[in-house]
């Protein structure tokens, strides 16, 4: 799993960075209607069924995470009756019961919130670290770039899951805020800390590509300051592939959270999480396979939703992919 | 011998106070494979209202010297030496922040390819208005109003309607006008135009050059025109400096230089242009290739391609084209050339 994820991250980096050619958003100069990179991209997105599947699934997931009580058919995930232990799915209880006799659908539905919170919080930190470090390294180059790229290389040497595993094991013994809790914040932070390097490399390479463009030289010749050039002129032209990568990464990070929790270092009971449910269900897979099946399906759908959206976004932002 | 030792040339009398003095400017690029000497001791001055054309082929250092003046070369790998004095202050020794204050209101620049010089994600109005926001702290609304005013001034039709359009929605000539509007926004004392018309077709070229001349007449700015187009130089420039291998090889008024070249390279350039009178005859190209700037030939850098070169026993003492670098020297009133045998070339 860990190696596979690292491979996936790298593959996404390659796809988002090198095949899109977004460094110079090329637009059709013959077209006379009001358009820009983003309105063209929206036009292409609207026609892509994969984008709609992904975004409807994501929207559903967000609503589920915000208002889980609407989707549990009146059941309480914490109201359990051992008499119902491991009961199979039925017409009243679609997902059956878990070992403790709790309604399983309610548990799976309530698990969405933690997954989403961790995925989004981690990706925000990944973006922040990636954009800031990558932009500075790419823009200033030379010595600064050398130091920052080597730091990223060091983090690359640590696999995402292994690094997060160690950090989450050691975290509670320290008094660093957030990290010493084993809550969603700690898991998200651990994932982001070992997952920001690809975003950094993407931003760095984009900034290097955009930096040498004529309009940056022109902006400098007009007396714009470094910070203005970087923030106003370079970053808006460099973000598109990062956006694609980010969307895909939310899915990857949600899967990684489930992995960590499954391994026992992520969220702890009594938190409700798909990783915990899969871990608890695996011992009972012969007698109650639905305990592994349902959280796994929902987890897969969630990851898939973000990856579909990212793929559609990448195609839409690449003019060469358009007919 | 370096060119800093040469006496300054008298400038054409039509111009005002000196705005820019470039003295012994060197630019080299340090690369792993060696040092590329892009500019090797260039000196010139520019006065108010003067148009100086810098003429040369690709790789002659004409654009790099302009970029050095603007301070937009990446340092390193570029190394800039010499002095560039704008209104008496040396730009190479002042702080980055002071330099930035000069760019825009002091010296401004327009580039060859207007499409790639405009940021694709912002409307042209935003980009022109940025000048006022950066240098004068104008509000968005003021900046936009001024942008429309400027677009009118550079004769973009329906400016108020087009201010929110993006660069790719303009034609090539209109884009160059947008670029010019940005460059003149703050009434710069000096405008450097780096091949402003190369990417345009001939009729649009003429319109853009006319616009630049009109703007110069209104504001009295000094204009440095970097080009390889002899026709453009002939039409608009007062004086011309011909560059070869990072050096100025000839300098004088346009009338003088175009009538009778004082350097074999200039002579070659003139002969390679089709003339109406010589219709049906063959053009005489300059043989050979421009020199590799990482390995500039010894002596006169032009000697391997020069039809008039004198080597060894043929040469006068100390004037062997293959070993002695000819200095830029006064060869006739108001004329400078860097050739040992310039008098012969001039035919005096």
From TrEMBL, chain A:
Q: Which UniProt keywords apply?
A: Cell membrane, Membrane, Transmembrane, Transmembrane helix, Transport
Start and end residues of each stretch annotated as Disordered:
1-32
Q: Where in the cell is it found?
A: Cell membrane
Tell me, which GO biological process terms does this entry list? transmembrane transport
SUPFAM superfamilies assigned to the protein according to its UniProt record, in alphabetical order: MetI-like
Polar residues: compositionally biased ranges: 17-32
Query: By its UniProt entry, which Gene3D superfamilies does this protein fall under?
Result: MetI-like
Name assigned to this protein:
Peptide/nickel transport system permease protein/oligopeptide transport system permease protein
- Boundaries of every ABC transmembrane type-1 domain copy: 112-310
Annotated family:
Belongs to the binding-protein-dependent transport system permease family.
Membrane topology per the record? Multi-pass membrane protein
Q: Which GO terms describe its cellular component?
A: plasma membrane
Q: Which residues cross the membrane?
A: 50-72, 116-142, 154-171, 183-203, 234-256, 292-313
Q: Which InterPro entries match?
A: BP-dependent_transpt_permease (IPR050366), MetI-like (IPR000515), MetI-like_sf (IPR035906), OppC_N (IPR025966)
UniProtKB/TrEMBL annotation, chain B:
* Subcellular location per the Swiss-Prot or TrEMBL entry: Cell membrane
The alphabetized UniProt keywords are: ATP-binding, Cell membrane, Membrane, Nucleotide-binding, Transport
Q: Quick one: a GO biological-process term for this protein?
A: peptide transport
GO cellular component terms, semicolon-separated: plasma membrane
Question: In terms of one coarse class, where is the protein primarily found?
Answer: membrane
Q: Record's SMART domains?
A: AAA
- What region holds the ABC transporter domain? 20-270
MF terms in GO: ATP binding; ATP hydrolysis activity
The protein's superkingdom reads Bacteria
The cross-references to CDD domains, in alphabetical order and at most eight, read:
ABC_NikE_OppD_transporters
Entry membrane topology:
Peripheral membrane protein
* NCBIfam families (UniProt xref): oligo_HPY
Which family would the database say this protein is a member of? Belongs to the ABC transporter superfamily.
Question: What is the protein named?
Answer: Oligopeptide transport system ATP-binding protein
Q: To which species is this protein native? A: Blastococcus aggregatus
